[in-house]
Structure formats: structure tokens, C-alpha cells
Amino acid sequence: MALISLVFNVSVTAATSRPTLKINNDRYDHQIQINGQTNVYYRFESSQDFLNWSPVRSYFYHTNNANAHQYWNEGTDGNMEYIRAAMYPTNWVTMNNSIPDNCPEHDNLNIVFRTNAAHIYITSTHPTDYVVNNNVCNENWTGCPNFAPILDVYQGPFLKQNVYDVGTIYVIITRLEEFWRPLGMTFKKDGITIQTNITFIEFGGNIPGTTKFPIYGVIYTDGYLRWIPFPPVNFESICFGNSVLIGPAEIENRPHADISIADFRTATKTLNITYRDGGTAILDPNTISRTSATAKITVGYSTAKSTCTLRSMYVADGNSDCDQVVWTDNSNVIRTNSVMPFYSTSGKSWLFKRHERSLQRESAPNTRITFD
Q: Which one of 22, 215, 241, 333 is most buried, by most CB atoms within 10 A?
């Protein structure tokens, strides 16, 4: 284990707000006590040379209570590691809670939005910065730790069932035998319970003028929404890429907003969602074409902690599902930033896109998040 040495504390706000840190070492883990401004978010950052700093795990909320936060590292014996605490602005609208990662199957991009919105619009469009040559969606575990994913709880038995089909749109529910959340959601149709412990719900439909009926959306019991347009004429299907977590999620390394009930209303073809921690949402999945797909979410939950969160994979430019963010600020100025150093902004619309062709899933779409 590398020696951890407390040498520097930093705040992204005024110098008078800088925290003081106290570290307690033992052989296996490290407890760090923060004394500083309360009711704000901090996270630890580490460096080997004082010049290049990397975030360590997620931002956490610092309250009036005395908090000892565990810090864990995998350093090599003999390396000196320096630690600082970075404080986020109190009036944030976007929080980049992303962590560097070498595994292409980890959602290490974690960009949180907090705004008092009535509606969220998630719009997916095909890549425009390069020509898509294939729709191969194979997994890529190069650079990943050599361990199996943790799947906490038995959900099964496995079930897959078509619960609605009118030709232009259909709905499929699936229960996996294992999933990382302890409970699945109850699926209802027009208020009547159809199945319990459902892991995810898929939406599909007919491409007008064809006999094709591809899947274009899926929502999971942990609140994650994945949305894609119909494939272009030269492909039978395209890959999923970015996810948007919808619901009252905590700020965490792997945030979630567990759904207790998902009620599909056949008259409106919308999904009424009830969350385990309180609040509701209505998912309208009906705007879909070969060029774009928009999911409209009516917000009925508390947005005090977060409104939604963009989750995706980034190892490097050319090995990611998203490498740039383009947003329109409150002065209607369009700005572009690389996704990892992207910082707190206020604005009206954010486009998360892949600027460079990726090693995998190159057909996965761009994702725009808009509020009103």
C-alpha cells in the first residue's frame, strides 16, 4: 500500500472556505476527517506530483455532523500519494462526478443535473461527426479488472413477456435471475398488476413503410433510461450507448432511483412511474423516427438532490460512448468542451456526443438533455 500523505487542501470557491483535513492511517484503509463549510459537496483528489490530480470516488455531501470519510487506494509500495479535498459550488446546476477508468464496460461518466424542471426531454440522434461503418455492439473487457460483476439479489425466475402490441408500438417486460438492486418493479397495465419483480421494460415499434419492428427504448428498475432512434436504412439495428438516470437519485459512484411501480397506460401509450423513495414520473415514448427519438419525462419527484444524471463510458477519445459535451448557456452562446474536464455550467440544453469514432459501438447515438 502506498504511503498517503496529507499535504494540500483546495476549494474551488474562496480561500476562506478551504477545508482542513485530518488523516488517520492504518494498513488497509484511511479515514479522513473534514472540517470546513458544511451542507456542500466535497470529493477527494489524489496526485503523485502536485501537478496532475485525479478524483477519487464520488462527491459526498458534508453536513454539520462530524464525518470521517473512508479513503481507499491501490497504490504501489514506495509511491508517495498526496490528497486534497475539492469543494463544489453551492449553486450548481451540472456536476461532473466522473472518475477516470480503463474499463470500456464501466459507466464512469457521471454528470448530474439539478434544476427545478417540469419536463425533461431525452433526444437521441445518430452520430454526425463521422460516418458509421458498422452496427457491431460487442462487449469489450480490455483493461477491466479480472472479477465478475456483483449481482446482489435473486430476482428470478427468468421471465420475458410481450404485454402490449398494437402493431405501431409494443412493450416487453423482462425479469432477470440476478440484478444489482434488491427489488424489481411491479409492472401494471391500466392499473392492473401483470407481473412483479421486473428488471426492465422495452419499447419497440414499426418503422413506417417497412416490416421492421426494432426496440428503441428500455427503462430499468434502477431508473436508467436508454433511448435510440430507428436505424438508418443501411442497418437492421444500432447500438445502445449513453444512459440517462431519471428520478430522485443520490450523488454516488453508482447512483440509482429505484422504481417500485411502472404502470403502462394503453390510451396514452405512456408509462406512469412510482419511485420507492417517493415521487412519480410519466414517460412518454411516442416520438420516434429514423433520425431521432425523444422521450418526454414529466417530473413529479423532488429535484433537491438531482433531476437526472447522464451515465456513460469513457476510457479515452476513440474509446468511449461519449467524448464531448456541447451546451447552450443562458446567454444563448453555444459552447463545446471535452467531457471529462467539463465543469459546472448553467444553460438550456446539453448535447453529449461522440466526436471521434470509437473502438466499439460506433453506431451508438448522441444524447441531448433539455429542460422546461
A: 241
Both 200 and 227 in a single domain?
yes
User: One-letter amino acid identity for 29?
Assistant: D
Q: Phi and psi for 371 in degrees, rounded to 5?
A: -125, 150
- Let me know how long the chain is: 372
CB atoms within 10 A of CB 50: 10
pLDDT in tens, 278-290: 999 999 987 899 9
**Is 246 in contact with 222 (CB distance < 8 Å)?**
no
Question: Containing domain of residue 289, as a range?
Answer: 109-371
State the pLDDT at residue 26. Answer: 58
If asked whether residues 113 and 69 sit together in one domain, one would say no
Query: Do 88 and 41 contact (CB within 8 A), yes or no?
Result: yes
Domain identity same for 246 and 289: yes
- What DSSP assignment string belongs to 177-191? SEESSS--EEEEETT
Residue burial 163-192, b: 16+ Cβ < 10 Å; e: rest: bbeeeebbbbbbbbeebebeebbbbbbeee
* Bridge partner residues of 299 (DSSP): 281
Helices (H), 232-357: none
The tally of domains found in the chain comes to 2
Rounded Cα distance, 275 and 300, in Å: 10
pLDDT, tens digit (0-9, with 9 covering 90-100), for 148-189: 555 667 778 999 999 999 989 999 999 999 899 999 999 999
Extract long-range pairs of 116-119: CB within 8 Å, 24+ residues apart: 116/303, 116/307, 117/299, 117/303, 117/307, 117/371, 117/372, 118/298, 118/299, 118/372, 119/296, 119/297, 119/298, 119/299, 119/371, 119/372
Find the farthest-apart pair of alpha carbons in the chain and give their distance in angstroms, rounded.
67
Q: Average of pLDDT values for 34-58?
A: 84
Q: Give the whole-angstrom CA distance, residue 22 versus residue 27.
A: 17
Question: What's residue 13's pLDDT?
Answer: 44
Say yes or no: 55 and 148 in one domain.
no
